[in-house]
Amino acid sequence: xxxxxxxxxxxxxxxxxxxxxxxxxxxxxxxxxxxxxxxxxxxxxxxxxxxxxxxxxxxxxxxxxxxxxxxxxxxxxxxxxxxxxxxxxxxxxxxxxxxxxxxxxxxxxxxxxxxxxxxxxxxxxxxxxxxxxxxxxxxxxxxxxxxxxxxxxxxxxxxxxxxxxxxxxxxxxxxxxxxxxxxxxxxxxxxxxxxxxxxxxxxxxxxxxxxxxxxxxxxxxxxxxxxxxxxxxxxxxxxxxxxxxxxxxxxxxxxxxxxxxxxxxxxxxxxxxxxxxxxxxxxxxxxxxxxxxxxxxxxxxxxxxxxxxxxxxxxxxxxx
Length: 320
Known about the structure:
The protein has helices at residues 6-18, 27-58, 65-83, 91-108, 117-139, 170-192, 194-204, 206-211, 216-238, 250-263, 268-288, 291-308; strands spanning 155-161, 164-169. By secondary structure, it is mainly alpha-helical. The longest helix has 32 residues, at 27-58.
């Protein structure tokens, strides 16, 4: 239905009435808020990049994506607590571990469900519950913590004006750097390697690619494993922002899907555009009103966008 339910509409009206008056314009405060939005962009890009690769090529609705983020965070926790490893040194191990688990999942579960969207959705949802349960059995439900390295703690102050400082944390800069680095590596793999050409061929026309000798089963496995590996890296990078717990991945799943469907699932530029649009819109509206209202407005805007442009902001023309 295109009409909002009465209860939802009344809730939005009540939320708007409860919203305080808009803040006066303060250039320093709004600049700091927009710089905080840069960190949100990095998180959205990190969590959405692997999902866009998996869904864009394989059309798999992976509801266990958040659990792969969680597995990456737990990998860093184990390595840091047992071997005193620096957070940055745990990133390759998180990628390899979650990519390995992803390859097993593709071979044993996902491969049998291609072309059956509902069954795939239910299977990955069940998988997310199983992964959470196994992690709880191993680590219990107690919160775990991962420490950020000392050299990326604190804030960077570009300049001060009249006693007010424009600041951004080094860790948020690290997040956006890692997100752009992974985006660049993924772009190189897709557009600068033979495997990338095969992946794009499968994306545009799977049957024709198979007729031309492309091993689509291998492409599917490597693609799913790579997407899960990226999710693991995302879990490592954001593990110091909040406590590590079995349900932590669910907090990022909805935002990752919003980023992917907003930008479009077939081009990396779409994921970047979706992350920038959602991140900075959320930051600006949160400054003018408040954070809960900002999330409601952004979510409503994404729903409207999907309604009138279901392919997202960017898409690629497919051959039929």
